[in-house]
Write a structure and sequence with these properties.
Elements (H helix, E strand, L loop, with lengths): L2 H17 L2 E9 L5 E13 L2 E7 L3 H7 L4 E6 L13 E11 L6 H12 L2 H5 L5 E16 L2 E6 L4 E6 L3
């Protein structure tokens, strides 16, 4: 791989991880008719030790599907207003191991504190809502797009760039 291209992609990946505040979720959710239909949602997140944490309500179908163990794909995308080219926004999608953290777990309150510190006082309001669930996502692999002809395979919780994708 072209080391200069990889260095640029690593810089843009790190900027995306530092600036993104919401994690997108794409998941198949059962409809009332029993079919599985694509569903998309998003949630504010924090990131610790390479893992993402979200706290969201099961009133959302994508969260009910996560609880049920449906496979999901996650994504981050650069802000439109800060992107030099709307056609080539920096974006990342990945699959991850998903684990719900029980309310009785030692880290539950600490993670909620961290989410509140990152995203504001609404956490004080929703903290005790029983329809909300805390999830930990540990990235496995995915792809990173940093511009035209600049798409890469990524691996692991640190999103190591492993391959420059040259064909669709």
């Amino acid at each position: 791989m072209d080391r200069k291209l990889v260095k640029k992609a690593e810089k843009l990946r790190d900027e995306l991880l530092a600036s993104a505040q919401t994690l997108g979720i794409t998941i198949l959710s059962p409809s009332k008719e029993g079919e599985e239909l694509p569903d998309i949602g998003f949630a504010p997140f924090i990131r610790h030790a390479g893992c993402f944490y979200i706290y969201s309500s099961d009133l959302s179908s994508h969260i009910r599907s996560l609880i049920a163990g449906q496979p999901a794909q996650f994504f981050l995308i650069a802000d439109e207003g800060r992107s030099p080219n709307i056609w080539a926004r920096v974006r990342m999608k990945f699959i991850a191991d998903v684990m719900e953290i029980d309310r009785d777990a030692a880290e539950f309150q600490t993670i909620l504190d961290d989410i509140g510190n990152a995203h504001g006082p609404v956490m004080d309001l929703i903290r005790e809502f029983t329809d909300f669930h805390l999830f930990k996502m540990t990235p496995i692999n995915g792809s990173l797009v940093t511009g035209f002809a600049a798409a890469f395979t990524i691996e692991g919780a640190d999103f190591t760039i492993t391959e420059h994708l040259r064909q669709g």
